[in-house]
Amino acid sequence: MTLSPLVVLDCDSTTIQDEVIELLAEAAGSRDQVAEVTERAMRGELDFAESLAERVSTLQGTAETVFAQAYGRVRLSPGIRELIAAVHERGGKVGVVSGGFHEVLDPLAEDLGLDFWRANRLEVIDGHLTGRTVGPVIDAAAKAAALREWAEASGIPLTATIAIGDGANDLEMMGVAAIGVGYNAKPVVQDRADVSITDDLALAIPLLDRLA
Fold first, then answer.
1. Catalytic residue of the set 10, 115, 166, 170
2. pTM for the full predicted model
């Protein structure tokens, strides 16, 4: 009998097609600069926490109305609703852990019916972004810790877990999970993933029946 699974996904460029930091940076006029840093971080060429701080600093002074603008432009990745439905049909749980931001992930989680979610939080003072985050940085280690925490909270063994991501900061959680899936992944992730899929997250559904 297949156990109820836990599937944990990265958010940006996995659950959704976009990089939220880039949507926010577009409003701040710094998208090109931010996109270059994001790409290098996802390839594993930069420390994630340092790259996050560098990118967030470009948002200083932007009005907090940018969150709703960014969420309005988010595009779901093909197959995400089907994958979530398949996990829930098996009595399982779905979590999204993001190096992005709660301010966009919170409404997305409600829309998708996620069981768990975690992300960075941007500091806002007097209605404007300060260019800093508050609280712990959700880096590679934090993503792996979230998967372990959610599995324990759900009574789901790690042998019944799948982690799906595209960037270098997803590798630790992919290593913890029974099956690590690269989705439209950077080369460093493709090299280490157990399975690689492209363009449609529903392609991960058959993997649910490989869990024990």
1. 10
2. 0.93
